[in-house]
Amino acid sequence: MSTDKNDNKIKILVIEDDPVITEFLCTGLRYEGYEVTPRTTGKAGLDALQQATFDLIILDVMLPDIDGFEVCQHIRNHASNIPILMLTVKKAISDRVRGLDSGADDYMTKPFSFDELLARIRALLRRSGRIHESKRLQAGAIVLDLQTREVTKDGKKINLTPTEFGLLELFMRHPHRVFTRETLLNRVLGYDYDGGTNIIDVHISHLRSKLGDRPPRLIRTIYAVGYAFYPEETST
User: Fold this and answer.
1) C-alpha 227: how far from its chain's center?
2) What's the CATH code, domain 11-127?
3) Which of 34, 102, 155, 169 could be joined to 29 by an S-S link, Cβ 3.0–4.6 Å?
4) Using CA atoms, how far apart are residues 6 and 200, in angstroms rounded to an integer?
């Protein structure tokens, strides 16, 4: 769970008018332990800021009323130091520059990887002092370095693909939690992936093979549901 130093949930305001993306963001962020407040217009987002305190804002640019650039400038003009991550289909360098000049701390384009989004959120929260996070995850002999994106087992490097790394990081952050194939698909391949969920089984098989994960497994198959990670198990 993502918490601040007072063990309260990190509060994220999502200002996004696309219902599919909003649902994807809210579901994924709440899964990570964040408290999420969604708003679908710039005005509603600004009203929410008047009513509650947030630790981070995810802001779309193409909103139905006030565009995200104006919303961002309005927030900054009121001396707010809340980290703002712009999330938009606008990919031109000029749009990125305008977003950052308007006061955004980071700028991501759609479609996006949820794992990358989470990494950027954690970076912004660390920079603002709202969280203090370890740079490594460890489960027995397996060590995952979040900075170098290297994985080792018993000190020996394991070469993982970005998808395999994303799966392992998700499992190590949430031991014992059961993930459906649909959730894993959305988390590591993105909300816009239109293939079947069987691809997750293929990636899990490759990850197990590289980890030398034999019964009793670290990555357990939960029949008719998905997968869960049990770090107390050992693979020899």
Assistant:
1) 19
2) 3.40.50.2300
3) 34
4) 37
